[in-house]
Amino acid sequence: MRRQIPMLDSEYKHNFHTHTFRCKHAKGDAVDYCEYAREHGMETIGFSDHTPLPDDRWISARMHVAQLDDYVSAVHRAQHEYPDLRVLLGMECEYVPKFHAFFEDELLGEREFDYLVGGPHFFTDDYGSWTGTYGGTVDAKSLKDYGRYVSEMIESGLFAFVAHPDLFGNCYKHWDANTISASRDIFEAAAECEVGLEINALGFRKIAKKKLFNPYPLYPWPPFWELASEYNVKVIVNADAHRPTDLQRMTSDAEALRVSCNLKAMDPMEIGAERST
Length: 277
Fold this sequence. Notes:
By secondary structure, this protein is α/β, with parallel strands linked by helices.
């Protein structure tokens, strides 16, 4: 059998998960990322900073809603200054059902965003209470809620793909019947709705720096992606860049996981294509 030559990080040409300084935990603005991308032979940069919400919730890790115009202007400036790159305007969003109109009518509608990304950093239980995937242990009931929430995010019809859908690796220790059930809910929804799932290279960077006392497997969680191979899901690799030099870092590891699990790659040109026609 012919040995497959691993892809180099520098060969990865597209990134649709890119943050700017406005989220308070990233560095650089749109033009800084585009300059790095051009210097390193990339073709597409999709900006997907954490969306502000009309009530400015979770503001410690996202821009205020009053900064939205500035963000849009920064991406438009990058599009103008780097015509040789495909530069797209997006947002990474928790799906808050009461703000569905904000996502659909204002971001995708009035402001003509090219795409939105689902980002399940928080999820709701049956009573509408929110739980974070960072900083604590999730039990079997909460894991079921996570699977339901991500499925509802997919079914909303708002999102081109879901970022790090295996984020529960931050707060659940063992691969078991509960993780399998939650994962199957996500895969079934993604396959039916034809919404992509992301293998997140930032997760590999976090795993490489994981502290010895951290009991969680983090993400990407290999059993999740092995199980995904049983479904007709589309998968996208992204760097989840928080500084320009992140744009291709460890994307080769993420791509190797996709290939090893025999997962269908999402066509990067389909993201934003409907908005440009």
